[in-house]
Each structure stands twice: as C-alpha cells, then as structure tokens.
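Per reviewer request, we include the raw input and output of the structure prediction for the construct analysed in the revised manuscript.
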Amino acid sequence: MNWQEAVNWCHGNGNAFTLVTLISTSGSTPRGGSTKMVVTQNDIYDTIGGGELEFKVTAHAREMLVNRVPQQKVEHFPLATKANQCCGGSVTVLLESFPVTSTRVAIFGAGHVAASLIKILAHCDARIDWVDTRPEIFPEELPANVKPLAIDDPVDFIESLSNDHRCVVMTHDHHLDYRLVYSLLSFTEVDYVGMIGSETKARRFYARMTKDGINKVDQLRCVCPVGLKEIKGKLPMEIAVSVAGQLLSLDPVRASELKPALSWKEVRAAFSSPTPVERPK
C-alpha cells in the first residue's frame, strides 16, 4: 500500500498510525518536500528516503502512538549530524499521530433504528461493526468507520469481538436477540450490552437469563431497554439519539462503572456451577 491507501486502511480497520510528512528540505536529501509515509506499531507504508533518518523518524512516530492521544510534532533533522547520513542537507518533519479509536461498537441488526444510529456514530470517534443476516439491507455507501458484515448467524461474530467493544442488539428477531445477549454475557467480557425492547421484553429476557444460568452480576452488563431514559421519543432517530447518548457517556478507555474489580471470568468462576454452559439454539 502507498501512504494514501494505508491511511484509508487504518481508518477503516480502527488501527493507530502516525502520518509523517517532510514539510521542508534543504541541500542534498533523499526525498523532496511533501513526501509522506505512514507508520503503525508493526509496519511502515511508503518511505521518506530510508536510512538512519527513516529509522529515527519511525521511532519517534511509534513513541507518539503509545500515549493514545492525537498529537502533532515538528522535528528538524540535519542529516549529517542528527541522522548520521552522508547527505549534506536537512529536513523538517511533521508527525501527526492518530491513536486507536476510543470507542468500538458492534451493532447487531440493520433496521431503521440501527440505520439512524449509524448516521450519528459515523461522526464520532468510533469504529463500528454492523452485523445483519441480510446483505441487501445495508446501504451501498457507508462512512469509512463503518464495516458492514452479512453473516448467516450473527452469533458467530461474537468470537471476533474484543473486550473493549460495546454491543447494541436490535435485530428483527426476538429469538436471535436472546441468543446474542446470552452469548455475549456467557462467553465475553464485553461490559455493555444494550438491547432494544420494552419493559415487558426486558422482564421476560432477564427471567429467562436467570433460568438459563446467567448470574445477576453478568446480567448487570445488559441494559434493556437500551438508551437514556430522559429521551422519550419513539421515532427511529429519537431512539438512536438516546442510544448514542448512552454509548458516548461510557468511559471510552476503561471498562464502564458497572464492571467490578475482578474480571467477568473470575466472577463467573466464583458464582457459577462447574457444569459447561451451552449456547441456546
């Protein structure tokens, strides 16, 4: 990939990167002004000329990624002294770091509310995995931070989630909603599982969770009805605003305040029976 393709790839996949630009050069230099490269924690895309200069710049670029906050920095490199290169010129380098997206969201279901929620989150610092069984339901054009995933059984996608994901369940099938929530609470440490539904649906689902062996601590991770209670509207965009507000109110780096000091696996080990848990079919 060249640097333009690398930027698009990093944005689309939620990967941290630093964009390096030679903003000025003088004398004899390997590359001219405006040359760019992209540096991630493991790879380099394109080049600003190689040699000791590129080695030192890459080290600076990766140090910036460790802080996990956007930064801009200008560095001046006399090639003969600071970079130990035989070229007699000098370069000034702009480094711009773009850290890992602070919010990772998996939305299960691609109905009207989900589509409205996507419109809001597309403008936020979020990477979104949008999962549904119907490939034809996704819009042809989507924002760069949204990845559509047409999967025959959305429950299979749960294995791909990180513990940093926040999940929203709003499919067209109540049975699928339950299977998703059950699997998210039983087999992941995701600390926020929002599920669309009425108070009646919530009572029925929580009762079934208890019957199926999901303990009360794990049930706290499921929020149903999802969204801010202060927003009363029933239109798809009004519900989406409510859900987005709740998602964005969560701590973007650490687990939400619902999460105890112990990991969820440790809590489950303490309260659960040794009988293996099976996913509902």
